[in-house]
Amino acid sequence: MAERRAGSRRLAALARSRDRLTGDENGTPPDDPEGTGPDPAGRRPGRDAPRPGVWGRIGQAALHPGRSQVVAAVVLCLLGMAGVVQIRSNDSGDAYRNSRREDLVQILDGLGVESRRLEAEVAELQGTKARLESGADSQRVAREDAQQRVDELAILAGTAPARGPGIRMRISDPQDEVDADVVLDAVEEMRDAGAEVIEINGQARVVASTWFGDDGTTLVVDGITVARPLTISVIGDPHSLEEAARFRGGIVSEITGPKIGGDVQIDQSDDVVVTSLHVPPASQYARPATSGPTPR
Amino acid sequence: MIPLVGLVVGVVLGLVLQPTLPVGLQPYLPIAIVAALDALFGAFRAYLEGTFTDRVFVVSFISNVLIAALIVWVGDQIGVGSQLSTGVVVVLGIRIFTNVAAIRRVLFHA
Fold first, then answer.
1. Testing the interface with A: which of B5, B28, B38, B61 to mutate, by most A Cβ within 10 A?
2. What angle do CA A27, A31, A36 make, to 5 degrees?
3. Do the bridges between strand A224-226 and strand A204-206 make them parallel or antiparallel, or are there none, so unpaired?
4. ipTM of this complex
5. pTM
6. Which of residues 60-99 of B touch A (CB under 8 A)?
7. Quick check: A219 and A180 in contact, CB under 8 A?
8. For the sheet containing A197-200, what is the strand order?
């Protein structure tokens, strides 16, 4: 009897395993949480048997709600709410909201490193900018200085017109006694008094190399014949220039003296315009030499 | 029919009430939702196979969600949270695919 019981148990086990093998062809894991049946063999044949009414059963269930459907509805309601909450918090643009602490720490570290790197770069670029700006600035200043010197030297060399306060000295000598020496004296007096630009008769600009000559009656300045009466236009401090001309024993005394018997009329002006130019001859021998920094 | 109505009601409630989750629980909500999806498909499969029990469904649903969140929480505590959550998602995804395959076979015999 015992042998028969054991044999029937073995047969039953075999049948169960066969059922399991044939029923589980889809490879579902046996630990399905919903595989509620304590006896798998009890339910597998039910599934294996062709069930024409699956859709019909679903339709029937839809028409005849039961307690389990209410429970499922409650659970689904919870799931729907949770899903909506999650989707909303994902969509809220705050991508870091759901991140874990260590992820956030890592992100923060990365950002810190990045920001330090960018700050260093900013400092470096600002230094470069300041250097370039100061370079451009000093270049501009140097250019302005040079331009100013060019202007001053052009006035000094007589190659540029000039205007400014000064005097006009009109010398009339009916006896033509004013010769080159007297004119040179007058020019020297004006230079001593700080004259910056001197022009004779609106024709001859007086510069460093200017020469004066006469052939008894006709006055020549730099090869230009100047007619009497002479008008000497001088740019400088008008007061000093007039005083220099009028001091006792000066040029006015000399001209108005008995030897020449002329007359001098001096007008101070705020705007003496000198337009005549001196054309410097091109240097035949001298060439500019490169030297150190231009003295200022 | 009623479960679908429940789902719609839940979505609408979520949209209307806009409930907010405590900050401490927020990292675990995605994992919990995946676990709930797994339980859901398992339940549907069991229903189609005729072995559905609402009590088991509720218990499995809650335990799935809790265990998934717990695993991730433990992972967070010991510093492997992201790896563990990836693992949980992979496992749950495999299970979901399996369940859906079974559902497909029962519904369409294919």
1. B61
2. 110
3. unpaired
4. 0.82
5. 0.43
6. 60-61, 63-64, 76, 79, 81-82, 95, 98-99
7. yes
8. A204-206, A197-200, A230-235, A162-172, A263-274
* Residue at B34: amino acid letter: V
Picking from A35, A65, A83, the nearest residue to B1 by CB comes out as A65
In this structure, are residues A34 and B52 in contact, taking their beta carbons and an 8 Å threshold? yes
DSSP class per residue in A54-117: HHHHHHHHHHS--HHHHHHHHHHHHHHHHHHHHHHHHHTS-TTTT--HHHHHHHHHHHHHHHHH
Positive or negative, the Cα torsion across A68, A71, A76, A77? positive
Domains of chain A: 1-45 (no CATH), 149-274 (3.30.70.1880)
- At B69, list the tokens: 């969140």
Under the phi-then-psi rule, with left for phi > 0, alpha for psi from -120 to 50, and beta for the rest, what region is A261? left
Per-domain residue ranges for chain B? 23-108
Picking from A28, A32, A34 by the largest number of B CB atoms within 10 A of its own CB, the best residue to mutate is A34
Helices B54-78 and B29-48: crossing angle, nearest 10°? Answer: 150
Is beta strand A204-206 parallel, antiparallel or unpaired with respect to A212-214? unpaired
Per-residue model confidence as pLDDT tens digits over A84-137: 888 877 776 666 766 677 788 999 999 999 999 999 999 999 999 999 989 888
Q: What mean pLDDT is predicted for residues A151-167?
A: 87
